[in-house]
Structures are given as C-alpha cells and as structure tokens.
Amino acid sequence: MKKFGFSTINSRTIDYQQFDTRLLDKVLQEEPSFARCMSCGGCTATCSAGNLIDFNVRMLGLLIKRGEIEGLATEIDKCMLCGKCILVCPRGINTRHVIMLIKKEMVKLKLEQV
Ligand code: SF4
Ligand code: SF4
Q1: CB proximity list for 20: less than 8 A, separation 6 or greater
Q2: Domain that holds residue 63
Q3: Using a 6 Å CB cutoff, which residues line ligand 1?
Q4: Least crowded by CB within 10 Å, which of 13, 32, 68, 113?
Q5: By alpha-carbon position, which residue is closest to atom 2 of ligand 1?
Q6: Higher pLDDT, 14 or 84
C-alpha cells in the first residue's frame, strides 16, 4: 500500500466495498440519472417538506449510497412528492422518481423480512 505520511483512524474510514448497495442498484436501474447527483443540496434547500419539518432529501441520497437504510422508511414518508426538487436540480435528476423508487423498494425489503 502507498504511504502518504499520514494514517486514517479506522473508525473514520469509509470502505466503499463494504456498503450494502442493493437499494442503490435498484434505484439506478430504473432512474440512472441518480448517478449524476453531486450532493449539492439544491433539492434540500427548496424542499417543501424540509421547509416545514426536519427532513433532508440530500441526506437520503447519501444514506442509500452508503447502504444505511435503517430508519429510511420513516424518513422518506415525510416527502410530499410535490416535485419542487426536480425543478432546481442542476443535474436534471428526477428526484421525485428516485424517492418513489426508494419507497417501493423499502416496502419489498420489509416484506422480505416478514
Ligand atoms: S439538487 Fe440534484 S445534484 Fe443536488 S443534491 Fe439534489 S439530487 Fe443531487
Ligand atoms: S418531492 Fe419531496 S423531496 Fe422533493 S421538494 Fe417535494 S417534498 Fe421535498
């Protein structure tokens, strides 16, 4: 391994190979535009739900990229599906479709666990 003169604390290391990407893979299959998300936060800044309650749509994207789906179902239910976030996304991502796909897949995952 190449040495850079510094080391990273193990607990602060992000290992992309270890992530559970099942949900992300499903979303990307049906909405490939999501791969273009650069986490700019434009969607969060304009979000109708986020203006009223504690809800961060940009964070949802990061969580599914990391495979952290615990608590995601409750969080995603806060979205009002108004579509405002689509209008401001600089990458032209159909964010509402992404959210609907996550909802659909979350239901399937829940059913698998029953
Ligand atoms: S506005 Fe678009 S590019 Fe920016 S964080 Fe939201 S989905 Fe990603
Ligand atoms: S569709 Fe959902 S995430 Fe997008 S602006 Fe509306 S409430 Fe926010």
Answers
A1: 67, 69
A2: 37-108
A3: 37-43, 58, 89-91, 93, 95
A4: 113
A5: 89
A6: 84
